[in-house]
Design brief:
The complex is a heterodimer. Chain A is globular, with a radius of gyration of 24 Å. Helix content of chain A is 35%, strand content 19%. The longest helix of chain A has 27 residues. By secondary structure, chain A is of the alpha+beta class. In chain A, the strands form 5 sheets. In chain A, strands 5-4-14-15-16-13-17 form a 7-stranded mixed sheet. Chain A has a 6-stranded mixed sheet with strand order 7-2-1-11-20-19. Chain B is of the alpha/beta class. Helices cover 34% and strands 19% of the residues of chain B. Chain B is built from 14 helices and 19 strands. In chain B, the strands form 5 sheets. Chain B has a 6-stranded mixed sheet. In chain B, strands 5-4-13-14-15-12 form a 6-stranded mixed sheet. In chain B, strands 11-16-19 form a 3-stranded antiparallel sheet, covered by helices on one side. In chain B, a hairpin with a 3-residue loop joins strand 14 and strand 15. The longest helix of chain B is centred in the C-terminal third of the chain and has 28 residues. The radius of gyration of chain B is 22 Å and the shape is globular. The termini of chain B are far apart. The chains are: A alpha+beta, B alpha/beta. Chains A and B meet through helix 11 and helix 13 of A and helix 9, helix 10 and helix 12 of B.
Chain lengths: 498, 424
Amino acid sequence: MTGQERNRVRVVVVGGGTAGWMTAAGLTTLIPAAADVHLIESAEIGIVGVGEATLPHLRAFIQRLGIDEVAFMTATHATFKLGIDFRDFGRIGDRYIHPFGTYGQPLGGVGFHHYWLRRHHGGNPTPLGAYSAGVVAGERARFARPDPNSDALQDSFGYAYQFDATRFAPFLRAHAEARGCRRTEGRVVSVDRDEQDGRVTAIHLADGTRIEGDLFIDCSGFRALLIGGELDEAWEDWSHWLPCDRAVAVPCTHAPGPIEPLTRATAMPAGWRWRIPLTTRVGNGYVYASRYCDDDTARDALLAGLEGEPLAEPRLLRFRAGRRRHSWSHNVVAVGLASGFLEPLESTSIYLVQMAITALIEHFPDARVTDADRDGFNTAVDAEYDRIRDFLILHYHATTRDDSPFWNHVRTMAIPDTLADRIALWRQTAQVAHYSYGLFLEPSWLAVYLGQNIVPDGWDPRADGADPAKLDQALAALAAGIGTAIDALPPHEASLPR
Amino acid sequence: MNRQNRVRSVTVLGGGPVAGIAALGFAQALPGARVDWIMRPVDPAALADRLPATLPSSAPLLERLGLDEAELVRHAGATHRLGERFLGWGPADYIASEGQAMPLGVPGALHHHHALAPRHPLHRYRPAAVLADAGRFVHPTAPDGPLGFHDYGLRLDPDAITPFLADRATRAGVRIASGDGVDADLIVDATGPASAPDWIDWTDALPATTLTLAETTGTAPDPCDTYRATDTGWQATWPLAQRTLTGTATLGTGPIRPGRRAEPWQGNILSLGDAAAAMGPLCWTGFALALANLSLALSLLPGRDMPPLLLTEYNRRASLRADRLADLLSAHHHLAAHAPPRPGLAHTLAQFARRGFLPHFEEESVGAERWLSVLAPAIRPARPDPIALSAHPPAPLDRLHATLAALPARLPPYPDYLARMRHA
């Protein structure tokens, strides 16, 4: 061994699946001189595999790993995703798309949405989405990869993927093993701890194998063998704000028609259902609160709403919303479901894995973990979870639905102060409280606020100065320009790998 | 109907460039409003008015105000600040600068690669610092070669900038008068520091509380300021267009009281400049902070009723910004053993000492390079960066050093470059 190899941190990843193999691929590609990675996974334990829609950040991750997009999409049966089509959340019959991208352009230092609000109150019926290239492209199922160096309307949106996550893990496994990741098949049955400082020193498998390590990554899903089972790290429960705790999922055939570059989220009596189109099939699921709906009713509702033929038996998943108080404790780092869970309403599950891996590399220890490593990682991860939590709660709370006990609960529940303050600022002034780091910047909040009928009655008074007819003309010209630019793009399916 | 009604009148109080840009900014943002600028004598302790400079992050607001750099050079005595040299401020002398590091062609940040093989001081590997140290400045060119990665601010001549802004403000419709304030929907207090009940004191961490200024004429302008540590504080050289200012700062108790208000916007009174946050004399940051806060005020511009939630959002962001800028100044002082670190700085230091990592903060006024300029020379991270360690082949640092060392000789001395701009 060279001197460098001798000094590498022995990283043991417990658990395969998306979290485990993303971590292994990330560490072996990006810090091979610092990490020696050994992944333990059990073939017996089922992979959850419901994280099928993603965010644009995943593109950066696979690029950083040197993975070719076409190869990745082919292996995972991926389609492009331009946003999420939300239906029936604010009111039954309402619909809006939350895109990747902005709305309009600021004018005179005043945000576009203030002008839109002024004309909306003045009777202009055009929805905000008409001024977003991402929304229009999603509605019309058009797509071409945007040029990041261009200011043109047809380049002013982002995109992500909709894919079969159960194929993503094997794809990454090949990548990681080619870069030196060792894999052992087995089930962890016990854990050795250091008597003085409590760190994990080794794990034991069912077949008697003992594996030592310096740093252990807990990717064992909800079972959380290390962070929960062994270290008993506290779990912060969020079920009072996000009561959904089950999902029933089933794939089905495509209905005739174009493959939409959109994930659909339709509100249901006790939660919501997803529809995620891949190249080969459509993924479906009903996320629901067992307190308000039994499993049989949920399964029947899911099957009744399919647009194609089921391709498997529906699968039931159980979870709970929340996160570890500390995702990194001692020398155990929880990534994925062992770290926390938020329902996939805004496709954040794989993002949370990716950002944990990024934070882990930024705070990667040497053989001894220090407080600075743990604190830096936990601060970053906790902030992301909490921000996403608040954004998801908004989707439920911003409703006038009163047609079921579930909707009555979420409509009337107390919400976190952080969220309440934001909503109050928005209602009075049409301003979005600002931050620059992490998910869901201003356009995302605009999409959900206005899509779900939280319409301010006060906005920037500078938007009142322009002549209303001229302003309507300018808005119409912008919407027309976006429509023309998007119609010139090829259909979504033309860009999919064959 | 909009529940918010627009502001019809603004009164700006103050005698220096902070009041000037506020008057100009509000006049432009509110075309129908009456804007009065009531001139008052500049408070000697109002350092944002007396030592005005901009940061690279100020550029968008200057553009929005229509303050073209070439005109500031020609009519407001502006000079380019590319670097700040610190001598005797820690274990190694260093040059602070802004911009990006040149791409190395391998993954990993420059300062991490440098920490693995520190043959020369870090500032020898950064274009802005190399140029500044050699007395050279040119505008950045297309981002291909070594001249595409530096960033700079502007020092404004304190005597020339206020008349320049007064002229601009008048042309924008501002009425300039002296005497008592005029009642208005919005009052901007740019009168300089005054005791306020919600004042938060920073003198523990920012100990330069006395400043004596002197000037020498017949000197040449230079793109690099110098701060030389002395037994009692420091001595600064600020080489402006027509004269060089020197500042002698003493640490301890004195008339300058660094600190900030907890709530700079209360009711219909917005405090800007030293009335809101007194940054002290180091690096001339007060005016740039006032610019950033003006920009924030113009983007959040409330209606006549001044909704409390909007003022709360302004105060939240303005306070974060002032604190973070104070953290940066605290870094200079703390690493020179002048003072203990501010809390935000202590967190940054702990993360940097461990792995050369800069944690994210909201409302930063400077880029990562500016932070690394001051932290890296004093702190060698305990743990080498794993990405840099994994880079193969290793980063071509020697080639970078040689490329940058040869750069200044190809460029005109700054006085010539500036003269050409002034007389163009």
